[in-house]
Amino acid sequence: MPPMPPTYLWQSIVVLLLCCWPFGIPAVVFAAQVSSKYNRGDYNGALAASGKAKMWAIIALVCGLIGGALYAMLMATGAISSYSYY
Fold first, then answer.
1. Residue 8 region, left (φ>0) first, then alpha (ψ -120 to 50), else beta?
2. pTM, entire model
3. Position 2 in a domain
4. What is the domain extent for residue 58?
């Protein structure tokens, strides 16, 4: 059997916590499936789960970076304020 495909688990957890959690959740789910599918002998399933984990991690990273940049632009232009007026 070929070697186990990369799980991308730690990358998925990082983007889940730091970037965009709605897209990080599927990344972690697919990353967790890689080793179990590989251990059952389902190499094609493990390879597909690895690819999906990578795809969702990249989507979460890009969305997090775009969201952060948009937030910084809105703060810089004064469209939103960090002060609260309670």
1. left
2. 0.86
3. no
4. 9-76
